[in-house]
Structures are given as C-alpha cells and as structure tokens.
RNA sequence: CCGCCCUUAGCUCAGACUGGUAGAGCAGCCGACUGUAGAUCGGCUUGCCCCCCGUUCAAAUCGGGGAGGGCGGACCA
C-alpha cells in the first residue's frame, strides 16, 4: 500500500485530493493533528480518528494530539483542574492504544491559546465571521443546547489551532467538516494557508444502525469496557446479514470490522462451532463482508469475533486506566 | 427596559378553564420467536408536574414572587 492509499484509506473525504497527493509525495516529517476535548475514557469514536493517526505515523507523519482544555471549558465541561486531569488520562490511553510515543506530540490547548497573538487573531476571525456561519459550523457538535457565545467562539478557535499548531493536515470526523471548511475560507483572510483536511466517517449507532453512534446516549464501546461488557454490547448490536440494510440504515458490526478491526489486524479468526462448519479466517474486510452477505458467515459468529477483536484492541488501554486509577 | 408565550416520564406532549398528589405515543427493560440484532407478538417500569411563598381539608391545577427557555418591541398594516 503506497502512502496516498494509506493516508486516504477509510476516509470519508479529503479536501482536497490534490493537496493530499502532494503530502503523500513526501510525507516524512509532515504534521497532522486531531483535537479532542479531554475525556476520562476514550470511546470508539476517538479510536476511529486515532486509527487514522496511526496510519499517518506509519507513513512518516508527525502527529499532534491537541488536548483541548480551553475548548472543554468553553463547553462547560468542568474546572480546568478536572479537565487537565482527564487530559492526562486521555494521553495515556492513546499511547496504550498504539500511537507511537516518539512521534506524537500532545499539546494542551491552554499552552498557547491564551497568548496575545492568538487572542488577537481570534478577534480578527470574530470580526470576519458571521454568527450564522459560526453556529452552523458548531451545529453538528453542539447538539440542541441553547446557543451560547462560547459556542461560536469554539469553532473559530479550532480554525486558528490549525495554524498555531503548524500542521499540514487537519484530521477529524465528518462532524468537523464545517469547522474545517470555515478554516479553509477564513484563515487565508488572516494571511495564513488554507488547511488540507481529512475526515473520517461517523459510524452508525450500534443498536439501531441509524445515524451516528452517540457517546452520551445509547450504547458505545469504550476503553473501560470489560470483556463481558463488550460481548454484551456487540451481541445487542443491529446486524442484518447484509452490508446494505434497507433504507438509510447501516450495518454497524460490519462498519466496526472495516474501520476498527481490519486496519489493526492482518487477519481475523472467526471461531465457529463445528456444528456450523468450524473456524473461519479472513485476511481482509471485503472477504468477511462477502461471506456475511452470502450467508456463509452467520451474524452471531461475526459478532463473537468482533467482540474478541475489540477486546484485544482495548485491553492495553483498559489496563492503563486501571493503573492510573489505582 | 417593556410585552406575549412556554416549562409535566429519557423525548414529543395531553391534563390546568370546572383543585381530590398524573396520562398517551415513542424510547427503555423483560419474555416468546428467529443460531445475532432487528421486525413481530406478550408483559412491565419510569416522574423533586421548574423553584419558593400563599389560599385551601386538599394545589400539576388557583394567587403572588422568582428562575430558565422562545418570540416580539422603526415604519407599514
């Protein structure tokens, strides 16, 4: 797999392809970033972008993980002390998950976002951006909370972060695309470059196959799930024997195989009772999908394999969390 | 600052006029059926009725105060 392929695999979109091709021509030392609001426990959504960061590292990129304490504060997520504490836990979990420590720079937002230059640039952005535009950028992230002034400052800071972290590629979920598009339009107004962006898909809800999986409502997979909890959650997942269910639904079990399992494992073994034909081995997502579609692989067997794979992926982080919490 | 409207289950809302400590749909949970889940049946759960004070034997309901949210306050009509 060449650099361009690895950079763009499993991406929902890149903006623009030409710009990414240029990065892929000489990826060594290029910088990519994702920003996260500090959270005590990583969930599967975090891991989806982390997988992309791992891809990028394998291509030679330096990765910057922004632990966005100021953003969390703007989102009313607690005191700075609490937020920084969870930021530290988040960093440890990312490392346990598989980000290369030597090639990952963890940056606390407050380490530069309170500087004068940053503040003045932020005000310039505020002058140049309409309320409607900022609110639209934030709509995907904010939910239906009452709009606060902090909510419109938030995406402007995200835009500015891309410049101040000196990154060549901004990575985020599709929920971040409006923020990134805002950055592409507004940063040049301040004399900065428009950032190149890469967006990961948003995985469908585990239980219903609808929309995006939510971390606050419904079921999500997280770094602290026990083996038994993983089995329970995966077993409860929506999983018709097809990759393309009726309507707008998706098959979340397949999606997780595609976006979480196969990128991290060369081979997936599906343990299957002899009565149903014995074990199966898959070297690619496509092969697994084809077997589910044909009926060769039963959803229940796919699920137990998925739970086992997730357990393996999460185990180091789960262990690290246990150590951190004493 | 002024005016009007809203606040009841996780969600959307009924109930308020004619006081008697609350309902529906959806969601959720459990079971049946499928070698998964869903669908489909069957069953079940859920509430500081925004807060405080007052009237009353009795307040979600009436009165007063407060909080939060929405909308409006040139001209024209």
Automatic annotation (TrEMBL):
- Per UniProt, what is one GO molecular function of this protein? tyrosine-tRNA ligase activity
Renumbered to this chain, motif 'HIGH' region spans 38-46
Q: Provide the alphabetized UniProt keywords.
A: Aminoacyl-tRNA synthetase, ATP-binding, Cytoplasm, Ligase, Nucleotide-binding, Protein biosynthesis
Biological process terms from the Gene Ontology for this record are:
tyrosyl-tRNA aminoacylation
Catalyses which reaction? Answer: tRNA(Tyr) + L-tyrosine + ATP = L-tyrosyl-tRNA(Tyr) + AMP + diphosphate + H(+)
Question: Where in the cell does this protein reside?
Answer: Cytoplasm
Asked whether the keyword Cell cycle is assigned, the reply is: no
Q: What is its EC number?
A: 6.1.1.1
Family annotation (InterPro entries): aa-tRNA-synth_I_CS (IPR001412), aa-tRNA-synth_Ic (IPR002305), Rossmann-like_a/b/a_fold (IPR014729), Tyr-tRNA-ligase (IPR002307), Tyr-tRNA-ligase_3 (IPR023684), Tyr-tRNA-ligase_arc/euk-type (IPR023617), Tyr-tRNA_synthase (IPR050489)
List, alphabetically, the Gene3D superfamilies matched.
HUPs, Tyrosyl-Transfer RNA Synthetase
Q: What is its main location?
A: cytoplasm
**Short sequence motif named 'KMSKS' region, residue ranges:** 212-216
Residues recorded as binding ATP, renumbered to this chain, are: 215
A Gene Ontology cellular-component term? cytoplasm
Describe the function of this protein: Catalyzes the attachment of tyrosine to tRNA(Tyr) in a two-step reaction: tyrosine is first activated by ATP to form Tyr-AMP and then transferred to the acceptor end of tRNA(Tyr).
Report quaternary structure and partners.
Homodimer.
Write the protein's name: Tyrosine--tRNA ligase
Q: Which organism is it from?
A: Halarchaeum nitratireducens
**Which taxonomic lineage does the organism of this UniProt entry have?**
Archaea, Methanobacteriati, Methanobacteriota, Stenosarchaea group, Halobacteria
């Amino acid at each position: 797999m060449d650099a361009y392929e690895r950079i763009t695999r499993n991406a929902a979109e890149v903006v623009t392809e030409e710009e990414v091709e240029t990065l892929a021509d000489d990826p060594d030392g290029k910088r990519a970033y994702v920003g996260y609001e500090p959270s005590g426990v990583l969930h599967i959504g975090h891991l989806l972008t982390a997988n992309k960061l791992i891809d990028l590292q394998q291509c030679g990129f330096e990765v910057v993980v922004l632990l966005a304490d100021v953003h969390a504060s703007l989102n009313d997520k607690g005191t700075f002390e609490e937020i920084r504490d969870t930021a530290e836990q988040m960093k440890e979990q990312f490392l346990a998950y598989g980000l290369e420590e030597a090639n990952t720079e963890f940056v606390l937002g407050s380490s530069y976002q309170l500087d004068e230059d940053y503040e003045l640039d932020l005000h310039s952005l505020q002058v140049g951006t309409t309320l409607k535009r900022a609110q639209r950028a934030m709509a995907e992230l904010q939910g239906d909370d009452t709009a606060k002034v902090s909510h419109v400052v938030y995406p402007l800071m995200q835009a500015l972060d891309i410049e101040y972290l000196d990154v060549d590629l901004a990575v985020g979920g599709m929920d971040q695309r409006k923020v990134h598009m805002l950055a592409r339009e507004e940063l040049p107004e301040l004399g900065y470059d428009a950032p190149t962006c890469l967006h990961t898909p948003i995985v469908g809800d585990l239980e219903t196959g609808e929309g995006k999986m939510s971390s606050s409502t419904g079921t999500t997979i997280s770094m602290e799930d026990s083996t038994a909890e993983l089995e329970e959650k995966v077993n409860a997942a929506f999983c018709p024997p097809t990759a393309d269910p009726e309507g707008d639904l998706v098959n979340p079990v397949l999606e997780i195989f595609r976006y979480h399992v196969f990128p991290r494992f060369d081979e997936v073994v599906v343990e299957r009772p002899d009565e149903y034909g014995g074990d199966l081995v898959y070297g690619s997502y496509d092969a697994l999908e084809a077997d589910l579609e044909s009926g060769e692989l039963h959803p229940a067997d796919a699920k137990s394999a998925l739970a086992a794979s997730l357990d393996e992926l999460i185990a180091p982080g789960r262990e690290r969390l246990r150590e951190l919490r004493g």
